[in-house]
Amino acid sequence: MRLTDFWARLEQAFGPGYAASIASDQVLPQLGGRTVEQALAAGVETVVVWRAVVAAYPDRVPARLR
């Protein structure tokens, strides 16, 4: 998954403002206790980060974006 696709999906699922908050403020156990931004900066593949977001927020991410 390209990084631009990742951010587009995150914004579609959460809205632009809340997506930014999710990425910078929410620590996800699936990412080793890092935020989305920290995981991406550490070189974690976008598809791995996306799967972590889906696992953390299964009710917020529509099936078409999974």
TrEMBL record:
It holds the Pfam family DUF3046. InterPro entries: DUF3046. This is DUF3046 family protein. The lineage of its organism: Bacteria, Bacillati, Actinomycetota, Actinomycetes, Micromonosporales.
